[in-house]
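dumping this here so i dont lose it again. seq + smiles for adenosine-5'-diphosphate
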Amino acid sequence: MITLENVSKTYPPNIKALDRVSLSIKAGEFVSLVGQSGTGKTTFVRCLIGEEKPKEGKIKIGDWDITKIGKREIPYLRRQVAVIFQDFKLLPKKTLYENVAFALEVAGKSNAKIKSIVPQVMKIVGLGAKMHRYPNEVSGGEQQRAAIARALVYQPKVLLADEPTGNLDSINAQEIIDLLKKINEFGTTVILVTHNRDIVNRLKRRVITLHDGRVISDQAVGKYVL
Amino acid sequence: MIISILRAAKFSLQDIARNVWLSIVTVLILVLAFFSVNLLLSVQVISQAAIDTVRDKIDVSLYLKTDAPESEILALRAAISGIENVREVIYVSKQEALEDFQTRHKNNPDILEALRELDSNPLSPSLIIRPNDVNRYDGLIAELNRISNPIIESRNFDDHKLMLEKINMITERVNQAGFAVSLLFIFITLLVLYNTLRVAIYTHRSEIAIMRLVGASDWFIRAPFIISSLLYTLIGVVISGTVFYLFLNLLQPYLEAFFLNYDFNIIHYFQSNFAQFFILEFAAAAAINIIASLVAVRKYSNI
Ligand SMILES: Nc1ncnc2c1ncn2[C@@H]1O[C@H](COP(=O)(O)OP(=O)(O)O)[C@@H](O)[C@H]1O
Ligand SMILES: [Mg+2]
């Protein structure tokens, strides 16, 4: 499903954010990517969504080599590989509903389709009752749920979550992780970037550990090793 | 495609409404900018009109003998009309001169009484000659001096030359100052516009990044900004035009007093040139807006 072959990314002047990373992730997996801060986890995510081009190596999603992707293809990639972040990245002047609908509107989907999909997805993430509020009128956990809803509207093959619980307390964090597990059960490949030891240990799934841009461990049922 | 345009328009209107203070400030600054430009243009138009009025009053009079026959006067008039650089030759007959004299002294009963006591009209007919180009006034005087016709009684070529030089100097200064002030104003206006847009777009920088994140194409990110810019500009031009029109109405009585007897109406001028003002200002501001939007979207596109 996702394969990286010797992927390296260097930022100027000479920061090796990723150093010859090779790995593969099968469809339907739930993978945790862990490591100290500054070890290239976000860079890994940005390479997978086409925001950064690696200096060397190949990244393939299915048969699609996204290291060669053009700017015009990025909107299509985003529908296959969705992403959520620690800071939610919701539009503050739009309601949660409008934020989710926006992802469909930009792609020219019909109003009828939007009206049927959005409430459904909002219900899946548990925001049915609060979908007409603005982001600053709900909790961080609820904002992250809205971001997840927005990521889900295209039924992406892959969901990348870059420290999605970084701004949340442990109860809200666990709820978000449970939601990601539920999404994974529906068939979406989930890659969870985190440095929360408890979460990783409780998941009992595959854990990939990065250190200074290199993969230093990759365990099928992993523990947080650092 | 149509649905995209409609959606871009919807996003633009939503954004204007939900950032209502920023929208008001943006429009206000646009209004002030347009108002200043309009004011500057008017000052130039008025000063040019003032200069023209004075230049127009520069003329040369040929006083003719009181008994000069009409036919000869008309022949002389025709001859002078043929001289190069003569714009018009006005024939003031004895009768007209009298009427003119009477109206000029209508508040002075003594003079009118004295005039009435005379049996016949004591005033002489005259030809008033206006040059095309006041700068070649000397040549015209020389030509007129060369005419020898027995019906000419006297030539009043007062020293217009000094006055002319003064006018020319004033004109030049007004033009220079006007040009400098115009440049300064336009520069300030552009700067203010550019900065307003930068602020407007800066407040949207995270939104631009988020739009990209969810897979909006560049076109889709830019379109709402461009539509908003065009709307702001349109509203700005309309408001500044209306306010300026009211302002001119207040100004017109003073101008009329200043341009006594001279047909100058700034409101008419404004009305007949309004479409041009409107289109030019709109086009210039819209161009700046669009360029700023395009540049900003590129700049703030990274997540
Ligand atoms: N845009 C950038 N320009 C320069 N250096 C960067 C940039 N983004 C990240 N880095 C550097 O690359 C390294 C990896 O960063 P990142 O992938 O964000 O790490 P993590 O997400 O694991 O904390 C860090 O040393 C960071 O300082
Ligand atoms: Mg990071």
